[in-house]
């Protein structure tokens, strides 16, 4: 049983609130503390529709965005390892709408108009984008183990050249912004042969501004170019991204070929396998971080709602009571950047918390400032209190929930394919080499290590730490690494090394120099034969 503060009679706090889960706490916080502020200052008209229970209770979602024929739908097919209803794959723009791929007991397709009236699905507010969008939005349901943990949103291929001038009939960038605010991960897919970022793609990426922590980039079909070309392609991609994603940090780019077909160029096979495993681990961690992500998004929303309230109430305060309202309104809209600066100083707000000036100026044209509400301090204080105290308690609840019942990681489909057995990442390599061999793997090179050992003047079959250090330092590895190798190799903890322990130390140095990590404890297959009973 969790509660906000110290539990009193019946496990309730002073406000009579009691919460069983973090999700329930988030939902209650939003409804009681933040929603009144949003409704008072027309936040939903300017920024984002109100959140519903399904937004808090839904599974983590992954949004795929990319130009046509970059492999978005194939990527989903690769993860699920089966076709999904409504799937179409081809070199031309095949996916002409949004497809929410979700778990269902039986296969089927739910059309958009039916989807937005389902209270159990987090899509009800998409109704605002009209029939042109809803006719191109479906939910593809199927019983798949991967979808028990996450949902995946497939998007239309972003057009380039003349095609991008054709109207879609709905605001594509705004739909992406809506999804971007609610999903847990945004994956931008690029084709190794199609790196140009069209105007529409650039607008799509800009629509995801503010969600930079969710964005990952995948350079797909990387096996279709050789190593030299891949280096050039990677550099060109980073240059292109730098022009549209205005952040000082470098975006994480995963290289690979995400489909179940033979690699055309195998020289980078190990790189592609390592990259795909990194991406899989990132996706697998989504259920574990889902509550934290929702909490983070609620904090971002609360900060924006506060700033919005300050802007609206300031505009109201500056309006004349009777004459010259239209003229004053135009003046205030023109002075909006200056107003932002005034509010930053007055309320100690970071410039990054303010909405886009140009967009705000455009939207304000359609409102009567004299009808805006004045500043209600109690609503602001309620949100401040939520951010200062309630959120901190929720953070501790998240840790407590995870310790009692850790969320299951994403499993099934491609996530199961190479975790165990000889095709698991790193199997038979580095520290794992020799795990399934009958002989001690170190013995294969022991004759070379013995030659070095006997030049170090062993006494009673052992060399001192001083003599061992001189030889180990030749590897040029840092002392911290060599110290760890010494602890692993000195099996009997006597501060000296016999010939087998020295050979083991040399083997571990070789493993580290080849770029592999060292274990925290020595694996059984590396324990020297003479020390197996110790």
From TrEMBL:
Query: Is Nucleotide-binding among the key words of this record?
Result: yes
What does UniProt give as GO cellular component? Answer: plasma membrane; recycling endosome membrane
Span of domain Dynamin-type G:
56-287
GO MF term (any one): GTP binding
User: Which Pfam families does the record associate with it?
Assistant: DUF5600 (PF18150), Dynamin_N (PF00350), EH (PF12763), EHD_N (PF16880)
List the InterPro entries: DUF5600 (IPR040990), Dynamin_N (IPR045063), EF-hand-dom_pair (IPR011992), EF_Hand_1_Ca_BS (IPR018247), EF_hand_dom (IPR002048), EH_dom (IPR000261), EHD_N (IPR031692), G_DYNAMIN_dom (IPR030381)
Membrane-related topology note: Peripheral membrane protein
- One GO BP annotation here? endocytosis
**Location (main, coarse):** membrane
Q: Where is the EF-hand domain?
A: 477-512
Q: Which Gene3D superfamilies match?
A: 1.10.268.20, EF-hand, P-loop containing nucleotide triphosphate hydrolases
The answer, when asked if Metal-binding is one of the entry's keywords, is yes
Which cell locations does it reside in? Answer: Cell membrane; Endosome membrane
- Classify the source by domain of life: Eukaryota
Span of domain EH: 445-533
Keywords, ordered alphabetically = ATP-binding, Calcium, Cell membrane, Endosome, GTP-binding, Membrane, Metal-binding, Nucleotide-binding, Phosphoprotein
Q: What is this protein called?
A: EH-domain containing 4
Q: Which organism is it from?
A: Anabas testudineus
The opening ranks of the lineage are:
Eukaryota, Metazoa, Chordata, Craniata, Vertebrata
Q: Which gene encodes it?
A: EHD4
